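Q: Galactose oxidase, please. Structure only.
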Amino acid sequence: MHMQLLHNNKVVIFDRTDFGSSNLSLPEGKCRHNDEAIKVDCTAHSILYDVATNTYRPLMVQTDVWCSSGAVNSNGTLIQTGGYHDGERKIRLFSPCNDEEEICDWTELSQNLTVKRWYSTDHILPDGRIIIVGGRSAFSYEFFPQNSNNNGFFYLPFLKETTDPKEENNLYPFLYLLPDGNMYIFANQRSIVLDYVKNKVIKEFPKIPGEKRTYPATGSSVMLPMKLVAGDLSPVVEVMVCGGANGGAFLQAKSGVFMPASRTCGRMRITDPDPVWVMEDMPMGRVMPDMLLLPTGDVIILNGASKGTAGWENAIDPVFYPILYKPNEPDPSKRFTVLKPTTIPRMYHSAAMLLPDGRILVGGSNPHVRYNFTGVKYPTELSLEAFMPPYLSPQNSHLRPSILTVEGPISYGQKFSITFTLGFSKPTKELMVTMIAPSFTTHSFAMNQRLLILDVVDVQQLSGFTQIITVCAPPSRNIVPPSYYMVFVVHKGVPGHSVWVKMQ
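A: Structure for Galactose oxidase:
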């Protein structure tokens, strides 16, 4: 249900705790004694997955993390907030560690959130704090750590205004930090810019045409790659929203009628003086899609269903085909490409995320109130898959760069260099360097996801197979908050394995 990549190339994966016991035992006789389903639960509802070795270690969450949210802070620690019942106001931390030297696990703080947060969204801020926005019947936002001046929450009428009767359709809002330091917030069909310092909405945008877009009429969204130019503190920002469901689809699904999912995507350049949504049609309709930014600057859309909405038993007809979207393709009819399908339905409570080697990790799917493995049309799915985008096909292996060193530390507005090799000695200038934030993915939205195309200053040939590329780091904390990021060298549309850098 929830996944977060950490800067040690391990992935924290977790699910709700109140379904009863899992198949994984907690180590060293650990047990939870506060479970709703069973009196004593000695099983794990979270794991730490090691991508390189394809192994995992069970972890212990102490309270229910069902439908919660998270963001990685400036030190690389996952700040994880909210959930259900005993977990609805909890704040949990998970810090990466070297398992050979120490065993890291979840830490739950005695400090609580000021408001119950179930289906909220988190985002890291330029000062390293985390903002937590919304949640069921939570028309407000708050911060972690809290301001010394204000220990409470801040009412946001926009969240109440975007709530549909009986359906909501404004949960898990889409959040993007903007280059001016303010926050873009999208819920249902509307979006605003919030000055969270002054608790003031400073801009409202046109409604996106067509269907509803946020939970449970769940579409997905990305902020398209920001192309940086050295010294420019105001790059163009464009938001893309795809999929969703018609108003009423949630109530219809409850009565066994599954309405077709939305086929539309909208793009809006929110930095324009008068922004408007430009609409496009996907090859097929999709509700509960996952949208991820690829190192190439393209977008992958995968998972979901073609009818219904999010929620228990609320969707049918899974969509097996991923879609590649090229935002810079001038011909709109050529932007979408249908890719090789999976055979596993990935519907409600599945997740997907970008890995450091350019693959997409896909896992889960549980459209039922309990873990139903048999006797249902869409059984609970416990597997993980790795989806290989076209750039990882064997015929591209000779184009793939391999990073040797990064000259750091990486500081705002400063130049840094990456030494890499190619499988042939011919010099090339067809290079791009991208910086990507690892996302916290749940319920079809990758929180904190952002991709920067760095300004290339120079490329030099060092030896037969080795080159060095010099780029400018992002110029401000508003564009890239301090934290860990994956840096990819992309050669002729083919990325190599990334390296982690810490922006500070």
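A: Brief note, in case it's useful. The chain has two helices and 41 strands.
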